[in-house]
Each structure stands twice: as C-alpha cells, then as structure tokens.
Amino acid sequence: MSTPILANFINGQFVAPAGSGLLNIVDPSTGDTVARAPVSVGSDIDDAMAAARAAFPGWSRRTPSERQRALLLLADAVDANSDSLVEAQHRNTGQPRATIAADEVAAGADQLRFFAGAARLLEGKSAGEYLEGMTSWVRREPIGVVGQVTPWNFPLLMAIWKIGPALAVGNTLVLKPSDTTPESTLELARISQGILPDGVMNIVLGDATTGSLIVEHPVPGLVSITGSVRAGMAVAAGAAHTLKRAHLELGGKAPAVVFDDVDVEKTAAAIADFSFYNAGQDCTAITRVLVQESIHDGFVAAFTAEAERRITGAPSDADNYFGPLNNERHFSDVVGKVAALPEHAVITTGGHRVGETGFFFEPTVVTQVRQSDAIVQDETFGPVITVQSFRTEEEAITMANDVRYALASSVWTRDHARALRVSRDLDFGAVWINTHILLTAEMPHGGFKYSGYGKDLSMYGVEDYTRIKHVMSALE
User: Fold this and answer.
1) Which domains does the chain have, with CATH numbers?
2) Annotated catalytic, 249?
3) Ramachandran assignment for 62, one of left (phi > 0), alpha (psi -120 to 50 degrees), beta (any other)
4) pLDDT tier at 1 (50, 70, 90 boundaries)?
C-alpha cells in the first residue's frame, strides 16, 4: 500500500503545495512511516494569507450570534466525527485512543461551545461624556488575519485552543500544525467544510521554516504559538520585524509542593497521575516533587510504587497509561538527559526504553538531586520526575520558584491558611491546591517568565485576539 501524501487546506479546499519537499509522518508506537507531508514554501503561505485576508471582511461583519452558530455546528461535527479524529491523531502520536477521545475530542468540542458563547459576551468601557460636548465609547474589534503554530503533544486540542477564540471574535487564520502530527488538524479542517466559510480557516503543512514564513509574513496582525522556549523566542523575534503582536504559550517545569500533613499514599497516587499523563509531554505536568523532609522517604517509596503501576509500551494501546514519546529526536533527547544524570542522583525506578520498537520510555523517578542540576532546571518533557526534600515553607517556595519557567504548580496540604499563603507566593500562572493539571474553558491558562505571555481559554484568552479602538463623537 502506498504512503499517502497530505495536502494543505486553503480557501476551503485541500490543495497540493508548490513546494516539492516532503516530511515523513511516523507512528511513534512502531517507527513506521504512515504519511508524508509537504514542506510549504513562500507561495503557499502567500496563497493561504490571501484567502484569509479575502474572507476577513465577510466573517468579521457577521453578527456574534452568526459566528456562535457556526462554532456550535463545528463542535457538533467534532463530536460526530470522534472516531476519525481519534484515528488520525493516534497514527501520529500513539496516545491511547480513549485518552484522545475524552481529553481532546470531547474536551475540544466542549471548549468550542465555550468560545461560541464567548462570541456574544465581549465587553468594553461604557460610553460616556469625558469631555464636554463629546461622547466616547470603546469598540473591541478583531485583529484581522492571525498566524498560528501548534505543537505535537496535544495536536487537536491545541488547534481548537487557537482556532476557537480567533474565530469567535471575527478573525480569520492561517495555522501550521506540528510537522510530526498534522493529521487530526487536517481532519478538523475536513469536517469544517460547509460549516465555516471558505478562507476563514487555512491549514498549511511544513517544518520550522514554514512556521517562520507565517510569523514574518506582513499580513497577520498577531502570531500565536504553543511550543518550546526556543521556538517562542524565535517567534517573538520574527514578529518584531513587522511589529505584530505575539501570543506565546511555552515550556514549563511544574513543581508539586507536598507538606507533611498529607495522606502520603493518596497524594503519591494523585501526583503519579498528573506526572506521567501523556508520557509527561505536557508543559503543565508535574516534573518536580518537593516533599517536606519528615515524610520524604515514605513518599519516595509510595511514589516509586505508583510509577511502576503506570504501564506503557503494551501491544494494545488500551492497556497503556501513557503512550510513546512523540518522535525519535525527542526520544533521544530524553534518553540523553537520563544518561547525563550526575553521580549523586539516584533512580528509584525506570530510566530505560520499553520494548524494541517505537519510542516508549519507562516512568522514571529520580531522587537525591540538587537544585542546580540540569534535570531540575531544564525541561525534560518526558516521564522523568525528580523528588527533592525541603524543611520549611519558605525553603519550599524558594526552591519551587528557582527555575526560569513559570507556567504551572501545585501545593498539597490540609492546612487551609498554608495553602493560601503558598498559592500566593508561588510564581506561576496556575496554582492548584490538592490537585493538578485540570483545566476548564472558563479559567485562563498561561504563564510568566520563560513560559511566555498571553492567555489561552477563558474570556482573557478571547480578548487576546481583539484590539481596542476609541471612538469619540461631538454631540452637536
């Protein structure tokens, strides 16, 4: 059977690109090539931008209720096409099918419905006479065309996080999915036909060079990326050339701060869930566990046992708690980081590849690390979790904040006042108390420091895709 060659989605149709380069799309469960994707070139990006720009006047002038209706129809279509979306993504990620169905398809449809409602809830400063004889008011408007780049760890959900708010407020868009996981985004484009007007949503395939062409193109007024710190810096620099806005959701090194009044067994099980979910390929996943010294040894024992219960690499994806690392380069990077652990570090479980095919890696727990170690400071983005001990609340906060990332964190304690103090002092865009990683469409998601700026989800995320205009009129 021949390997399919994927196509761009421009102006409502799948079209062959001008570029002749092709990328292999590999199933990370097997290492087999399942498709080939084009590397879009400048003329392809020009075509997509032209389609988005031509579609903008009609889409932006639709009433909020009309845009809401289209997004609600798209959400229904996502639900109705769950099986095809799951299979398209499973081929590219190896994630358990049930995980994709629940956490990306069903959750994505729900979030589209939130964005549909948000289309009708934009607010601005009330009109008033701030100068004598003059009335002023504020218009909140769409930006125009936006460029977007999505990552490989949650391909469908991250596309929805980009597409939903942009379209809700009247923008049109050109989006590039990751070069390793394009198929679920293309399936989303397919099911949008007949629901979204032609040119409103355009998908172009390619590599980092293609992404740079989108970022530096003169048409978009905003570029948005979810990705690594390195990629975010490149986007910010590229956007600066044309003074366009940038929206950056980047890496994380999330701590879980565990105090000695918790139920150790229960807390270890919960933290294992939130650490090893999606093979740790989640910028909000727990990567560092900071445990008060009086329960440190007991927690390490319990957490190690919980890690060993999280299965990966089974022949049936339904048996896996998490799937493979996404691609060979990333797999080699994680393997290399574990191999480079300092001599004082102790691996209590894991640390090795699982099986001989695919990119599966054992759930891994590392103790006796120091704050300055690379495994503590740098993003691993894999199922590798460090455990450190602390003595006091103040020390815990200092250790938790002592990384360049500031996306997500959690505090685990039965002491309500302590939970409030620590949640105040943790320097992260999200702080969970006695839980972690859970998101809801109504609440914002985004970080500080090297984790980027701008918010996804919530009305804050929607407003990021708008601009503010002051209008003043003489009363006579």
Assistant:
1) 8-250+451-472 (3.40.605.10), 254-440 (3.40.309.10)
2) yes
3) beta
4) low
